[in-house]
Amino acid sequence: MPAESRSNVFRFDRVVVEPRQRRVLVDGKVTPVAGRGLDLLLMLVERAGELVHKDEIFERVWPGLVVEEGNLQVQVSALRKLIGAAAIETVPGHGYRFVSKVETSQEDESHFDTRSNLPRPLTTFVGDENRLNDCAQLLRKSRLLTVTGAGGLGKTRLSLEMAMACGSEFSDGTWFVDLSPITDPRLVSEAVALVVGVADQAAERLLEAVQRFMRHRHALLILDNCEHLLRGCAEVVGALLRACSNLTVVATSREPLHLQGEAIFPLPALSLPPIHRDSTLKTMAGYESVRLFVERASAVNPNFRLTEANRDAVCEICARTEGIPLALELAAARVRALSVEAIAARLHDRFRLLKNADRTAASRHETLRATIDWSYGLLDEAEKRVFERLSVFAGGWTLAAAEVVGAGGSIDRDDVLDLHSRLVDKSLVCMDVEGERYRMLETVRDYASERLEQLGEPDDARIRHFDCYVALAEVAEPHMLGPDEDAWHDRCNVERQNFLATYTYARNHPAKAESGLRLAYGLRRWICRGAFDVGRPVLSELLAMPDAAARNAHRCRGLIAAGFLSYYKGAYPDAIRYADEARSIAHELGSMALAAEAMNTLGLSYLGVDDRAAARARIDEAAIFAQDAGTRALLLDVLNSSAELYAIEGELDRAEPLYEQVLRFAEEIGSGDWKITALMNLTRVAISRSASPQAASRLRSAVEAGGQAGLIRWAPYLLTWGSALAAILDEAETAARLYGAATKSYSERSMLREPADERALAPCIAASKASLGDTAFAYHEAEGAAMRAEDAMAALTQWLAETTTRLRNPPSERAAQPAVTPRSSRGKR
Known about the structure:
Layout: E1 6-12, E2 15-18, E3 23-26, E4 29-31, H1 35-46, E5 51-53, H2 54-61, H3 69-83, E6 88-91, E7 95-98, E8 103-108, H4 110-113, H5 129-141, E9 144-148, H6 155-166, E10 174-178, H7 188-196, H8 206-214, E11 219-224, H9 230-243, E12 247-253, E13 263-266, H10 281-284, H11 288-300, H12 311-320, H13 325-333, H14 340-346, H15 350-353, H16 368-377, H17 381-389, H18 399-406, H19 413-425, E14 430-431, E15 438-439, H20 442-455, H21 458-476, H22 485-494, H23 496-508, H24 513-528, H25 536-544, H26 553-568, H27 572-589, H28 592-608, H29 612-629, H30 632-648, H31 652-669, H32 672-688, H33 692-713, H34 715-728, H35 732-748, H36 755-772, H37 774-785, H38 789-808
Parallel strand pairs: 9-12, 9-13, 10-11, 11-12
Antiparallel strand pairs: 1-2, 1-8, 2-3, 3-4, 5-7, 6-7, 14-15
Helix pairs in contact: 1-3, 5-6, 7-8, 8-9, 11-13, 12-14, 17-19, 17-20, 18-19, 18-21, 21-23, 21-24, 23-24, 23-25, 24-25, 24-26, 25-26, 26-27, 26-28, 27-28, 28-29, 28-30, 29-30, 30-31, 30-36, 31-32, 32-33, 32-34, 33-34, 33-38, 34-35, 34-36, 34-38, 35-36, 35-37, 36-37
């Protein structure tokens, strides 16, 4: 027998390593060891007794990648657990030596070919080994495993890797059947019969022949690409599993076979690196999408390496291809002729760029478009219409929203549930872990959107989408203050991209301008919680449109929203202009509630330009209308505004009881937002009086009321009053750091401090600057600005707890307290 038909097999202790089969047997049982771990083990056993330097290992096991040494240590540790800790010796500072005695023998390749027809992959497998192991565990628990997922995710490759890892568990063979060339479901049994070698039967008896062949065999059968032959595959697989008790079947399909006892493994996309520069090259190499791109790019261009210069472009390519292996491989193939920067720049037209130069590739994998064409072609007409209409969603959707948008024409709303479920089954729509939201991969969404445009009905779906989210904003509005406010704010956060799309539609369709104003009013409180990128720029355009010019309640509410948002952005002249027009329309309409809202915003905006007389007149007038309207939310707004004016005028004895009344009202209606606002305003009063124990206690209560999720949202305000408290305690360095962190937090939200806050804070900061000197203050302020919001709030919380305890139980002699220290200076990130 020719030497090339033989392969070395390594034996040591209780272990057998079969390189050609890429499998490891421990005590005669196959133990999955895939990818890097297997490559490392092979390298060590091939050179048993020799010192293998770390550099050599990295070059062979991670070719072309910059990898942290910790990755190698993890792989060695995993191997030691598998084959015994004594088998691999560490040579500190140099590398590793395989010390177990290894016996080498040769085994005929034909020994495996009689029991297996698995195709030999031409490239290395890149993926999560835990994912492969999880899949193998499912295979051991079920006789039918279907690997599902969108086109191009690597279902075939995963099934082959799993079969190679588990192959020896099936003593009578592993058989691979590619069904992609077949178009007739009745020919599935013929395809299986051809592979296992029993095709010399009458056509009607082929399935019986396969059953007889497999009946007493302990075998694994892989049916690849079942999605276009589901009925035929289900019939054949069901018949074989019933007749052959030792047979196990793996199917790859874009949707399940829906057979009893079927285990389903939904294959996710490869992991993606974060889109920021905090990641090192070594960290980036740990992401599967980066590893795959770099390996495939290095194969077509041996000079290619991941570097600091190209890291951002590689990161963008991974993000734009969404971790889809096929898309990444098609992009990597372009490295032969284009720089990664050029590839990233052209991915806006991904369907044109991502084509396969491999003439042997399956037709459905020739281009990224062809992959989705394959799935689209399997849909019936109703499924196609719903699939296309779902493309108008941005950032995902709920089933209720899908029922609104997906209906139309011959498709009733009641039909959408079933059609939508079928799209999930076919891996064209993804469901989140909780099963409450759905989305499409952007690649799939782009394709569906193109199809929608070609269909000629895109506006019908977008109008339904627009109406759906205007209605959601109006339903949400009354819940934005009260016991359910957090849940509704969270819901709006999830729908942010859909709200942005709704605004864009209103901007581009003047007839929808008035509805756009309804949207803005409904979302105004959510926007002021931190979603400032939503609404204000578009709102001014909508108000200027002729279709929104009628002096009615919709324009009045839109003006109130515009004034409200402009005030919180510090654009006081704009806020006065909008609120004054809203006040005028509210009087014309005879609406006390709208008049109170408009005049309250107008009064606060006059405070912003330091016209206290005008502010007092408007706020007092707002109080009268709010009392008549009898709305608790309006009363809270006006009470707080009146207290703000007293605070600015230095009348703290008149401001404080109003703030306390706001706190009581907030607790009565269950509004956490107003409770925190009132506590912070009471903190400000205590700081203005230099009552540090009271200020610390109230600020700590505000932090606790914010909860873990709310701390970041309230960070600008909480950090501000932490800074002021530190200043009156003569802890100037801490004051400077917290001031820097607060200023950065305001800037990130494009907000300005409100007038009453700025007036109370200014003398505190001036005192700390005088204590430290401008240069030292600026240094510590920059330290605070460099902190992440999470770290700054964690530092504030810790400092505040220590300070509150100290002020409650003052020592006889005041000891120096540790200042807030940026996390980076403590050696953490």
